[in-house]
């Protein structure tokens, strides 16, 4: 049996997305069919549309999603029909060298569905964004990409843990190891940076400094836990962070922009033996130049954060519980809810910096 559903497809590089009818097969061994309830509009989806990931068009976009498992294939035991789940793009294999060393958050052989979804009009195979493809009424994923969480959370808020919000929170808690009493600076306060601020606050940081060039984002950062804000268009970010930390620099600096200039700010804004976490995604042509003596002399750690170094089975339920306890406001990341045919307009608003997240609600 197959399912005909509506979905958002990017047919060619730079072309506006279109609402199409696609064919979704029933799940095979190790797979799950998920009825999507909500899916966030992430910058990564725009990267796919622009050909910035690869050129395997057409793409089935969408990946920050939550929904209900409709059916599962042979051998699936971790989730069952009726389960409310968040989708993830890190379905760990359990067998690669990272998993066998007890570091499954670095899994080097993550799973996706083996069967292909196709365009109803032509039969052409679709490439699902991050192996998910959730701007659709239903999608097919590997069962390990489904993490069961408490149904009491709204799908619009829960789904954001599937990518950007988890990336930011994890950059602070998992990669940066932010702890009680630490000073933290976050450079770039879009969706991921804002989540890093919220994560630092939840982790007990004594001082959380938000840095951006947009005052609107700094206002939001305050609401999510920033204790201080710096507009780096008006003030030297490094000097401001040092001044706010007794002249030393922050214990942890999280770079959520992905540019050489802001990475250098992060490098020099940290305390001696402090930690820099890069969670912003650079483009292939970018180069970084730092005096090697400074890298040696300042000590500490220079880290990159992949997906917030998260383990979905561990982190998603824990963060949903914190949300339901009122300790982590995931609803604050949902700027607007939209229909499936409004994704292209949401990309335009993203460019203008008008939203933390637009969320498609089905």
Automatic annotation (TrEMBL):
Cofactor(s) recorded in Swiss-Prot or TrEMBL: Zn(2+)
Residues in Enoyl reductase (ER) domain copies: 14-362
Q: Which UniProt keywords apply?
A: Metal-binding, NAD, Oxidoreductase, Zinc
One matching Pfam family: ADH_zinc_N
- Per the UniProt entry, what are the Gene Ontology biological process annotations, in alphabetical order? formaldehyde catabolic process
Q: Which SUPFAM superfamilies match?
A: GroES-like (SSF50129), NAD(P)-binding Rossmann-fold domains (SSF51735)
Keyword hit for Oxidoreductase: yes
This protein is called: Oxidoreductase
Instruction: Name its species.
Output: Streptomyces aurantiogriseus
């Amino acid at each position: 049996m197959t399912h005909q559903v509506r979905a958002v497809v990017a047919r060619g590089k730079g072309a506006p997305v279109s609402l199409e009818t696609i064919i979704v097969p029933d799940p095979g061994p190790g797979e799950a069919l998920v009825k999507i309830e909500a899916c966030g509009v992430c910058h990564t989806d725009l990267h796919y549309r622009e050909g910035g990931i690869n050129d395997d068009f057409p793409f089935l976009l969408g990946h920050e999603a939550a929904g209900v498992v409709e059916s599962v294939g042979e051998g699936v035991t971790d989730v069952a029909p009726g389960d409310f789940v968040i989708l993830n793009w890190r379905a760990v294999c359990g067998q690669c060298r990272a998993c066998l060393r007890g570091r499954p958050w670095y899994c080097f052989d993550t799973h996706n569905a083996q069967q292909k979804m196709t365009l109803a009009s032509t039969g052409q195979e679709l490439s699902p964004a991050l192996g998910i493809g959730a701007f659709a009424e239903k999608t097919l994923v590997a069962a390990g990409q489904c993490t069961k969480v408490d149904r009491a959370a709204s799908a619009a808020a829960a789904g954001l843990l599937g990518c950007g919000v988890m990336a930011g929170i994890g950059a602070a808690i998992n990669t940066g190891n932010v702890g009680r009493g630490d000073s933290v600076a976050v450079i770039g306060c879009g969706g991921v940076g804002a989540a890093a601020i919220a994560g630092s606050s939840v982790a007990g940081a004594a001082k959380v400094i938000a840095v951006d060039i947009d005052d609107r984002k700094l206002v939001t950062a305050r609401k999510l836990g920033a204790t201080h804000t710096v507009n780096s268009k008006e003030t030297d970010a490094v000097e401001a962070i040092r001044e706010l930390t007794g002249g030393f620099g922050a214990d942890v600096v999280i770079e959520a922009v992905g540019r050489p200039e802001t990475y250098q700010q992060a490098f020099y804004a940290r305390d001696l033996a402090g930690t820099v976490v890069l969670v912003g995604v650079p483009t292939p042509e970018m180069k970084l130049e730092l005096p090697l003596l400074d890298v040696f002399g300042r000590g500490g750690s220079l880290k990159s954060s992949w997906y917030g170094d998260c383990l979905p089975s561990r982190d998603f339920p824990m963060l949903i519980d914190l949300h339901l306890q009122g300790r982590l406001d995931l609803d604050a990341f949902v700027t607007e809810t939209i229909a499936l045919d409004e994704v292209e307009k949401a990309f335009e608003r993203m460019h203008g910096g008008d939203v933390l997240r637009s969320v498609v609600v089905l």
